[in-house]
Amino acid sequence: MTSETEIERDIVAAGKTAPRLTPADIDAAIVSEQYHVFHGTTLTVCALTLRNGYIVTGESAAASAENFDQAIGRKIARDNARNKIWGLEGYLLRQKLWLREGPLTSNG
Q1: Tell me, what CATH number does 31's domain have?
Q2: Is residue 2 very low, low, confident or very high in pLDDT (cuts 50, 70, 90)?
Q3: Tally of domains in the chain
Q4: DSSP type of residue 28
Q5: Overall average pLDDT of the 77-85 stretch
Q6: C-alpha distances in angstroms, 67 versus 38, 42, 63?
């Protein structure tokens, strides 16, 4: 599995300089986080509040209660929530570029 750090390094090495999102941009969008484990379950939910007040959620659950670890559940749930931010921030960046540059010229 390729990490964000490796991908970022490849982008920089390739000399890509057009507007884009970085892992730091995604982290900067998050202003707070909250977690909840539902009583009697292994279901962990993470709620990340973004700078504009929007809340993104992620979840995790162990298939076997014996494998449940609260710290691991929180990490997985947070990663799942954080991954959703890429799409939201990508849309926002594309909208800003569109407003600046005008509509895309291709039909696809």
Answers
A1: 3.30.160
A2: confident
A3: 1
A4: H
A5: 98
A6: 16, 9, 8
Rounded Cα distance, 62 and 48, in Å: 21
pLDDT, residue 108, reads: 52
Question: How far, CA to CA in Å, does 105 sit from each of 98, 99, 101, 102, 108?
Answer: 11, 14, 10, 9, 9
Tell whether 99 is covered by a domain. Answer: no
- Tens digit of each residue's pLDDT (9 = 90 or more) over 43-78: 999 999 999 999 999 999 999 999 999 999 999 999
- The residue whose two tokens read 């509040």 is 49
**Dihedral (CA of 102, 105, 107, 108) sign:** negative
| Residue labelled with tokens 């202003």 | 31
List the domain range (segments joined by +) for residue 80: 21-92
Q: Which residue's entry shows tokens 């484990």?
A: 37
Alpha helices in 1-108 (DSSP H): 4-13, 23-29, 70-101
Are the CB atoms for 22 and 7 separated by under 8 Å?
no
What 3-state DSSP class applies to 3?
coil
